[in-house]
Amino acid sequence: MKIILDFGFTIAGGVKPYFYDMMNYISSIDKDNKYVIITTKNGYQLIKNFSFTNNIEFYIDEKLDNRIYRIYWEQFILPKFCNDNNADILYCFNNRIPFKKMETKKIFLLGTLGPFIREYVDHFSFKERLSIKFLEFLIVKSLKNTDLTIFESHFTKDLVTNKYGFKGKAIVNHHGKPMLNNHEDYNDIDKIKIKYKLSSNYFLFTTYIRKYKKIEDLIKAYALAKKDFNKEIDFVLAGPIAPNEAKSYKQSLINLCEKYGVEDSFKFIGMVEGEELKILMQNCYTYVFASSYENLSYSLVEAISFGLPIITTTATAMPETCGDAALYYDPKDLNKLVSHMVSTVNNDEIIIDLKKKSLIRAKNFRNMEDEIKFNLEIFNKIINE
């Protein structure tokens, strides 16, 4: 079987660790089938030091980082590329597929939720809203021309089905959790605390800085809750400003911290990746995920995999992701968020209980080895239909 995996776009956000883990393990799991991995120069830089077996080759095109070129390429060049390579399966990870009828079986992963949520769309500029509307068109068109759609959550599947009358073949896949070494491998926290000037305990939120992540609410809630903590707790936000957010937005958040008197304890530490991120996550006091809408969040799956106490919202797919392994609050209920922060700091029993529930919840997600095997089962099934 010849399989084309299309990661030909800017590798960022939740897909970045997924891509990294898949490329790290694919050679050891499947030596029988042939793969062509489509990616950009940026994507290949992440994995260039991995050892790949002879059944895996790469197609690298740095122009695929350009969104306009990417659309042209996927609709006109990619079908011919599949035909020339006698591909049995094309699996696209960029929320859309070629519309053209092909001999190659087409699968695409719908990993975004934003275009279907009015609140998300409305916070962008008019020009960006037009771009999102066009993405919505491409997704809906892809739904009508695919052999299989893979949704990351039942929430998104139900939303798309009800909104667009989608009746195509589909499955829900709560995608693979990160491959973790033994937790004690991530105990080098002292260097991290010195580097970022952290106190012994800290809340953590790993995210791109975007308006719908509700960081303003986190700052306000943390400032209120901090008055009632029985120990010193910092709040760490790890992540860069999103490319499509105004640079002034981060400064407005820093100004808000100063207004509420938490400028020294609410810390913006920028992008953190690799082992350093794992150390930071492993040692955080509580993971707080404040987003008002997400599909299946890879960050939440990571937090669950580490057995972290979690506070998150009741919005969209968050309850589906965390189950009973989180304390929930309505995104509009700031007082509930404050209450959860205080209770996790002042009540050790709540922390112990949430940690146990997270580790149990983690069993609901496949690791990357099992994820690759699961994909192979899907490929074989769709080929033999």
Write a structural description:
With 385 residues, the chain is of the alpha/beta class. It folds into 2 domains: 2-176 and 366-383, 3-Layer(aba) Sandwich (Rossmann fold), CATH 3.40.50; 183-364, Glycogen Phosphorylase B (Rossmann fold), CATH 3.40.50. The chain is built from 15 helices and 13 strands. Strands 3-2-1-4-5-6-7 form a 7-stranded parallel β-sheet, sandwiched between helices. A 6-stranded parallel β-sheet has the order 10-9-8-11-12-13, with helices on both faces. The longest helix has 18 residues, at 67-84. It is globular. The two termini are 15 Å apart. The mean pLDDT is 92.
List its salient traits.
alpha/beta, 15 helices, Rossmann fold, 2 domains, six-stranded parallel beta sheet, seven-stranded parallel beta sheet
Question: Uncertain spans, ≥5 residues at pLDDT below 50?
Answer: none
CATH architectural grouping of the largest domain: 3-Layer(aba) Sandwich
- Give Rg in angstroms: 21 Å
Mean pLDDT over all positions: 92
Overall shape:
globular
Write a short abstract of this structure:
The protein has 15 helices and 13 strands. The protein has 385 residues and is an alpha/beta fold.
